[in-house]
Design brief:
Structural class: alpha+beta
Distance between the termini: 37 Å
Shape: globular
Number of strands: 15
Order of helices and strands: HHHHHEEHEEEEEHHHEHHEEEHEHEEHHE
Largest sheet: 6 strands, mixed
Radius of gyration: 27 Å
Number of helices: 15
Strand order of the largest sheet: 10-9-12-13-14-15
Length: 592
């Protein structure tokens, strides 16, 4: 029996919660800095103590703004977190239990107490989070604001700094420290935002692990399949794609079983420890078999996984520094510090160049700009120039949409067309992958026919985890992905997803399709199934490098930008795809 990973959107949505808290912290910091920089009746340089009094009197306004921002974000985060634990979490337990009962041919029913336990866990976690958000965080904001005010005044009255420089250094110091949460055993001050993210991450990972273990425990199963990634810590590397047990290791029914206790199980740095992303799926010896590995994971041995983990950690360090530099550039704009702005613009350029070289050196890595960005909504009405910049960037953000070319009239889908959908063998797909794809194409056309008036429908699924297809519904010309699918596209690993969609006419890939394919790292393969049952695809293989395709696209860019009609634009897109077939060995294309 095939082993199925049943995470669904569990980890995707939990990352969404973490991102909300990161955005909240950034927005609160920028709001505080903007309030410091806002001009009032008093001048810091001429009347520093009056300026200080005026700013401290403004603290109640800052608190009101902060509480409102916290309330808005916290409500959204809690709603998603409850969905993650109570719904997605319970589904993991239920599906794991169902897989095990099928394998064991058992009639055992899921434990009815699990849902109540999950509800209690959410309430307990949110009680801790609410205390941090509603008590600790507002106090910390006031403390940080007060220290920045006093620091600015101290710099001016000693005569060592100008008002601008004193304020700039004070807010940089506040930004570096963050909002205080607690002091650890080593005497180091910890800030609220990473503390919040740690609570959410630890809770969601521990819960998913315990739910799988609970389903196994209910049915007397003590063996698990240990997942595999391109990178792994030293304790996890030997366990990847192996069968493990919380009890004794050994060889059973011809299968080698590793004892987790030999690999630091229960220790922060050990397997399943802090920040470990590996999952364990209940595995019935003699009944289940390990999943086939995709090409990019087949040659990952223990040594390579550990090396990759170091390279991945270095990438994360680059991304943190890039976010920090972006935030400091905005701080410099708020406090009008041109020197600081220029310094971090240069540093940002150096960091981006370094990250690009690092990714090129390690092909298994991929660029995910979402990890490099700050909050999308961190600027206030006191910083108009920065707000304009944000709006411009907003127009440049990728639109997660698929689009059909306007060629020919819409063709109604028939049962005959659905039955004729061919088995397409895409390089890198094994026989079962190809059969699954054919089945998904037929299902998509059936859904478009019965539920969407033969208009455009898209489906997204994970090629390696065997998760179900997530569908979105569009109109005659295009389809916008729903919120769950957008999260999946943004949070999934590189080249792990297959995106399928129909074109109501007989048209080929559109320019929007091409842009989506190349600018979404998580997408490995994009297909079009026409309403008459024809299939076209474009797919990334192990030699894929986005730079090669962009170089080819550059030859057509001017013509595409100047195209005055859909017909002219579509001709250029098709010409570009033919060029890719000939000259880009990292892309496999079928357009006829």
């Amino acid at each position: 029996m095939n082993l199925v990973n049943n995470d669904g959107l569990y980890y995707v949505k939990s990352k969404q919660v973490e991102q909300i808290y990161q955005d909240l912290s950034t927005e609160l910091m920028f709001n505080m800095i903007a309030r410091l920089a806002e001009r009032g009746n008093a001048d810091l340089e001429r009347n520093p103590y009056i300026w200080q009094l005026e700013k401290l009197n403004d603290m109640h306004l800052l608190t009101e703004e902060s509480v409102k921002m916290i309330s808005e974000k916290a409500g959204v985060a809690e709603e998603i977190f409850r969905d993650v634990i109570e719904n997605e979490g319970y589904r993991i337990y239920k599906d794991s239990h169902e897989q095990l009962t099928t394998a064991l041919k058992s009639n055992a029913l899921p434990d009815p107490q699990v849902q109540a336990s999950l509800n209690a866990l959410v309430n307990q976690t949110m009680f801790e989070v609410d205390n941090l958000l509603n008590i600790t965080l507002p106090k910390s904001i006031r403390r940080s604001f007060e220290q920045a005010v006093l620091g600015s005044v101290a710099g001016v009255v000693t005569g060592t700094k100008t008002a601008e420089k004193a304020l700039s250094e004070a807010v940089q110091k506040a930004h570096k420290k963050g909002f205080y949460s607690f002091t650890d055993k080593a005497g180091r001050e910890r800030s609220v935002e990473p503390h919040l993210r740690t609570i959410i991450k630890t809770t969601t990972r521990r819960t998913a692990r315990e739910l799988r273990e609970k389903s196994a425990e209910d049915l007397g199963v003590d063996t698990f399949y240990y997942s595999i990634k391109s990178s792994a810590r030293a304790y996890c590397a030997p366990l990847q794609h192996q069968i493990v047990s919380k009890g004794k290791g050994g060889t059973f029914d011809g299968v080698k079983v590793y004892a987790l206790s030999d690999y630091g199980y229960g220790k922060p740095e050990g397997c399943q420890g802090i920040n470990c992303d590996h999952y364990m799926t209940p595995f019935v010896l003699g009944m289940n078999y390990k999943p086939d590995l995709p090409d990019h994971l087949k040659n990952i041995d223990e040594k390579k996984a550990i090396e990759n983990a170091k390279a991945e950690a270095k990438q994360r360090a680059f991304e943190r520094e890039i976010r920090k530099s972006k935030e400091l550039i905005e701080i410099a704009k708020i406090v009008n510090d041109k020197e600081l702005e220029q310094k971090h613009k240069l540093r940002l350029k150096t960091l981006r160049s370094g990250l690009k070289q690092h990714i090129e050196k390690h092909p298994f890595l991929y660029r995910d700009t979402s990890r490099e960005r700050g909050s999308k909504k961190h600027l206030t009405k006191t910083n108009k120039s920065a707000k304009i910049k944000e709006n411009k960037n907003g127009r440049q953000l990728q639109v997660l949409r698929l689009e059909a070319k306007n060629i020919g009239k819409k063709i109604d889908i028939t049962d005959e067309a659905i039955s004729k959908v061919p088995l397409v063998k895409i390089p890198g797909f094994n026989e079962q992958d190809s059969k699954n794809l054919q089945s998904h194409h037929k299902e998509l056309l059936s859904i478009a026919k019965s539920k969407n008036n033969s208009n455009e429908v898209s489906g997204v699924y994970n090629l390696t985890s065997f998760s179900g297809v997530k569908y979105s519904y569009g109109n005659r010309k295009n389809v916008d992905f729903n919120s769950d699918v957008k999260v999946l596209l943004n949070a999934s690993p590189q080249s792990s997803l297959v995106v399928i969609h129909n074109h109501p006419g007989q048209s080929n890939f559109s320019l929007t399709d091409i842009k989506f394919f190349f600018t979404t790292p998580s997408v490995k393969t994009l297909t079009v199934v026409t309403n008459k049952g024809g299939v076209k695809y474009i797919s990334k293989n192990t030699d894929y490098n986005i730079g090669n395709s962009m170089i080819i696209l550059e030859k057509y860019r001017e013509g595409i930008e100047k195209a005055k009609t859909d017909k002219e634009l579509n001709r250029l897109v098709e010409k570009y795809l033919k060029d890719v077939i000939i000259n880009d060995k990292g892309i496999d294309v079928k357009i006829r």
